[in-house]
């Protein structure tokens, strides 16, 4: 865990995301799927940023892999969420009281 952040990491073993697609994956309506809307990652990113969090994506594609390395290292998605001293996420609900917790204040 990075200081003051909870970290969730998900990784697959696929072929990675192309350089061109990586530069657009958070853009609304960008999709590489024939039946996709292209809204999922843009909405997720906006929600994370609204709560002081961040989404990092590490996904080298096959043409970026040095010779002799694992051919398809996959994509790693890291979600970083700010936490309070009690361990609760900023901007979330205090389930014990049914009320919103305060959002972090920028210095």
Structural class: alpha+beta
Largest sheet: 3 strands, antiparallel
Percent of residues in helical segments? 10-25%
Cα Rg: 17 Å
Would you identify the CATH H-level superfamily? Histidine kinase-like ATPase, C-terminal domain
**Spans of at least 5 consecutive residues with low confidence:** none
Q: Taking all residues together, what is the mean pLDDT?
A: 80
Beta-strand segment tally: 5
CATH topology title: Heat Shock Protein 90
Euclidean distance between termini CA atoms: 22 Å
Total number of distinct structural domains: 1
Strand order of the largest sheet: 1-3-2
* DSSP helical segment count: 2
The fraction of residues in strands falls at 15-25%
What is the 3D form? flat
- Please identify the top-level CATH class: Alpha Beta
Please write out the topology.
Layout: E1 5-11, H1 19-22, H2 40-50, E2 54-58, E3 76-82, E4 93-94, E5 99-100
Antiparallel strand pairs: 1-3, 2-3, 4-5
Summarize the entry for a quick read.
The chain is of the alpha+beta class.
Keywords:
107 residues, alpha+beta, Heat Shock Protein 90, three-stranded antiparallel beta sheet, two-stranded antiparallel sheet, 5 strands, 21% strand, flat
Q: Can you tell me about this structure?
A:
With 107 residues, this protein is α+β, with helices and mostly antiparallel strands. The chain has a single domain (5-30, 37-100), classed as Heat Shock Protein 90 (2-Layer Sandwich), CATH 3.30.565.10. It contains 2 helices and 5 strands. The chain has helices spanning 19-22, 40-50; strands spanning 5-11, 54-58, 76-82, 93-94, 99-100. A 3-stranded antiparallel sheet has the order 1-3-2, with helices on one face. A two-stranded antiparallel ribbon has the order 4-5. The longest helix is centred in the middle third of the chain and has 11 residues, at 40-50. It is flat, with a radius of gyration of 17 Å. The model has no long low-confidence stretch (mean pLDDT 80).
């Amino acid at each position: 865990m990075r200081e003051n952040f909870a970290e969730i990491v998900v990784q697959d073993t696929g072929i990675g995301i192309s350089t061109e697609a990586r530069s657009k994956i958070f853009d609304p309506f960008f999709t590489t799927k024939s039946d996709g809307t292209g809204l999922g990652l843009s909405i997720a990113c906006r929600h994370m940023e609204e709560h002081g969090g961040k989404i990092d994506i590490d996904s080298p594609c096959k043409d970026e892999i040095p010779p002799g390395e694992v051919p398809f290292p996959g994509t790693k998605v890291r979600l970083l969420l700010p936490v309070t001293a009690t361990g609760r996420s900023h901007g979330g609900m205090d389930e014990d009281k049914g009320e919103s917790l305060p959002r972090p204040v920028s210095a």
